[in-house]
Amino acid sequence: MSNVTKKDPKKGTLHSGPTSISKIPAPKHWVSPVPFGLGKIKPKHIRDTMKVAWENKDNLKYATNILTKGVCDGCALGVSGLYDQTLKGPHICTTRLNVLRLSTMPPLKEEIVHQDVDKLRQYSSAELRKMGRIPYPLIRRKGENKFSRISWDDAMDMIAQKMQTLDPKQYAFYLTSRGITNESYYTAGKVARFLGTNHVDNASRICHSPSKTALKRSVGIGASSCTYKDWIGTDVLVFWGSVASNASPVSTKYMLAAKKKGTKIIVINPYKEPAMDKYWVPSNAESALFGTQVADDFYQVNIGGDIAFMHGIMKHWFEMEEEQYGSAINHEFVQNHVNGYEELKAKVDELSWEDIIHSSGMPKERIRELAELLANSKNAVFAWALGLTMHSFATDNISQVANLALLRGYLGREHAGLMPFRGHSSVQGTGEMGADPFVLPGGGWDEDNVKRIEELWGFDLPKWQGDIVGVNLEHAALPDDHEKKLKLYYMSGGNFLETMPNPEFIEKALSEVDIRVHQDIILNTSTLVDAKEAVIVLPAKTRFEQEGGGTSTSTERMVYFSPEIEGNKQPVEEARAEWKIYVELAKRVKPETAHLVNFETAQEIRDEIAKANPDYDGIQHLKKQGDVFQWGGAWLCEDGECPTPDGRGNLIPIDIPNLEKPEGTFYVTTRRGKQFNSMVFKENDPFNNAGRYDVLMNSKDANTLNIVEGEGIVVYNQHGVFQGKALFTDIARGNIGLHFPEGNFLIPKGIYDSPSGIPQYSVAVKIEKAERFNARKDIDYLEKKLEDDEIDAPV
Ligand code: SF4
Fold first, then answer.
1. Which atom of ligand 1 is nearest to the CA of 96?
2. Greatest C-alpha distance within the chain
3. End-to-end Cα, the chain, rounded Å
4. CB 727 within 8 A of CB 767
5. Rounded to the nearest 5°, which phi and psi values hold at 352?
6. Residue pair 636/223 in contact by the 8 Å Cβ criterion
7. How do strand 534-539 and strand 138-141 relate by DSSP bridges?
8. 374 lines ligand 1 (CB under 6 A)
9. Which tens digit of pLDDT belongs to each residue from 714-763?
10. Which one of 24, 146, 472, 530 has the lowest number of neighbouring Cβ atoms within 10 Å?
11. Whether residue 75 has its Cβ less than 6 Å from ligand 1
């Protein structure tokens, strides 16, 4: 069945709406004929659902209303109420159910919120989260060991007065991704510029800025070129460094529908993630009973070996071309729509198979196998996530994926495309709304766009380059008299202590700021860090409480409207809509001109977004539950026409990165268990039973170190020490996996992908038996040997 229904003169082909999943049983995709995965390690969806219902029993009607009327504030897959745009039938998952409590729980009790901060610090973020919502504005001044209540007026005045004394380069804004709406992102980005600062950054940029940077330079776009519906019936669906089934559980239903249409699913990841191998889709009776064998094949490429692996694919394509012209490359597409073919070919030709095999860790035959599968497939969709984006060479990783797509012409049509697979609901919209140091609504910082936005907003924009969050934090730790010293950090959500590399440094940086503002729903460990003058905590409304509703944009560019939902039995009376707080701040810092950023209603914001970002023309018409539109139509770069200056895609020659992995070391990366971003819901991952401090390693590597399964081991480098237990898993040799954020102690700060500013989250480490490490550490490690400085544990 075709995906195509209508064409719009401006947007091109429009999405055709949800389709149905085949009801014909397909035993060839079953995990086992034994029902319900008996005897297998797997999630218990029904039990988890019952638990959530019990948790929300004090606000059950409101919880039900959120689920049936709201837009999910979980992941970026996107769903309005219980229905999405991809498949007919209900759409719900345990991630959504797990975050539901954030919106239904009562405010924190006074005796908790006002207890000694050292007592509060004994709680984990998960425990703090479960205790309730921030009840009213709070303050903890220097030297005070308890939060006390402060009025909204006094809190806002204090923040505003401090800002008035500072150079705008000395304060920064940060917005996380916990259900914040486009309206709030837009207002925050606008108010930050109105106040004179370009230091405004967001969580989505940390995760996927390389996707945007790379797609822009390769094909001129900053978002997924295709839709989820294109998965269903494509020949090959490749997940690159993505555990989509864990991050966005309902995506497994789309994968099941795709498999039933004959799609082959390929997963490229160092660890054979069990959730991408076998899954029991609860909303599909056949899959719930017998399970679904998700991936048809896994390619367990080294951490950081993807560029070499893709070079291998291209090398084999060029070899095939020598045998037979047109056997691998889509020459018609390349000739009509692509630049740089000869330069890329020259780069690939100069690489040896030895280099490719060494870096990727994959045998030549396996690389050739995938190359041939793709060469023989008319259609493919490439989806990727943090396994490709969290590297110092992440932008190159993604451009290399685009190279593959351009050589095969997998772009701008049904069942083909490039899809950065996003994490949290609304992250796609963050940058598009301009809450990002590198962009403005509707474009970048080029002269024309700056002029256009200045005319629309009615004030001059600060013209200096704003800093990314990691650099802001480094500047927070500078001496007081340093001209770049950050003195006020205004955060809408976020928990840097548990998300950024090098938590010890982050704690120091947070405590070195004069005033820290945490506009949030709950307390977390970062909120409890001291500040030099004061920590101010402001209670925010959830997206479901926001007056006039709010919108969020999914991975596939669907802009969903979520209405204000009535009936919360235990509201936080003093909480405010986030966009209103930003407007209020502007009024207090610059009262004379604050009318320039004043919004009275959410509708006014949407009206302005439609003008500020022409892609969002249509958002102003979203007014009620179920309203949705897709910006850009079904496919960006439709018919191969890219929005680049010459309308063509660019093949980019990429070097194989040097991973700086000394002999005898392992490469470590972090992974998610039963969690959503840094929110951990279960100590043990239901897919592999791994505990949070288990070190996922290959048993053959363990043998070489005489490590037995379950044994205490130490993973260390010059940045930190991680004490855990060995868990033998199917992970590529020489690579290990730790959970995020527990493994962050090993990750250095200050290493970024230079084009996009994303921090690197993978690094070389040594592993040792705990008993040996601990027995020798006084001798070997505290007397740090200079010659081995690069990998020694910190003193
Ligand atoms: S898959 Fe994502 S969008 Fe869908 S219900 Fe789950 S968390 Fe929400």
1. 7
2. 77
3. 63
4. no
5. -90, 155
6. yes
7. antiparallel
8. no
9. 999 888 899 999 999 999 999 999 998 888 878 776 666 666 666 666 68
10. 24
11. yes
